[in-house]
Amino acid sequence: MTKKFQYLLFVFLLALCPVIVQGETTTSPSEEVSSSSSSTETTLVSSSSSSTEDLTSGSSSSSETTLTSQDSTSNTATITPEVPKETLKTATATLATSVIKTQAMYRLYNPNSGEHFYTASAYEAREVIKAKWNYEGVGWHAPVSGIPVYRLYNPNVGDHHYTLNGHEKNDLISRGWRYEGIGWYSDQNQSLELYRAYNPNAQSGSHNYTLNGNEQNVLLRAGWRNEGIAWYGSGVRPESSEDAALQAL
């Protein structure tokens, strides 16, 4: 081998050395992308995981705790304390007295005919007492409004009749009874029952109306017929009454 050839070989090998060294220490572009992508994924996963933990343990927990606390406070604040039953009864009674107006129903008796007469008019009661009827006191208390009780009069026998039934009223009118209008009203709350009894043997005073169950039973044992409930009285006392004045006559 000539010296010239050896010199050219040496120059060639010397030129290749930097390329070999650089190939062993430098990463290729594809490897750099892969490494970068892997690094990015790791960062994203770490960040996502961190965010998830924050939402779960931080914001979510805090929100739930706050809502629960607010709901609990709100529910507790809106609870209404129980009102004692005695207070409710007193308030109900006071309300009923202030709203429902009633009137005394005066009861009178004719010892000659056996008829009972009922009226809300103290003046009419006085006139009847002057005609020698017996005053028997207040029969019941009737509301000043409600379901009408009709009053009729039979001029042939001098008897009065009272009914809640419009059909019965019309039937009696067709038979010659005189219609005298609304006598009073029946309690819509149906507080107190007034019983009706019929005496088939009497010409006058054939019907009796009473709040007293014992009186009703006495009449039934004496042969009167039970005709059920005539109408209803009220449990509310009127603001005023002429009972004492009528008793004194």
How would you characterize the overall build of this protein?
- The protein contains 7 helices and 9 strands; from the N terminus they run αααββαβββαβββαβα.
- With about 250 residues, the protein is of the alpha+beta class.
- The chain has helices at about 5-25, 30-75, 85-100, 120-130, 165-175, 215-220, 245; strands spanning about 100-110, 115-120, 135-145, 145-155, 160-165, 180-185, 190-200, 205-210, 225-235.
- Helices cover about 50% and strands about 25% of the residues.
- The strands form 3 sheets. It has a 3-stranded antiparallel beta sheet with strand order 2-1-3. The protein has a 3-stranded antiparallel beta sheet with strand order 5-4-6, with helices on one face. The chain has a 3-stranded antiparallel beta sheet with strand order 8-7-9, covered by helices on one side.
- The termini are far apart.
- The chain is rod-shaped.
Beta content:
25-35%
Sequence of secondary-structure elements = HHHEEHEEEHEEEHEH
Biggest beta sheet attributes: 3 strands, antiparallel
Number of helices: 7
Termini gap = 172 Å
List the uncertain runs. 19-78
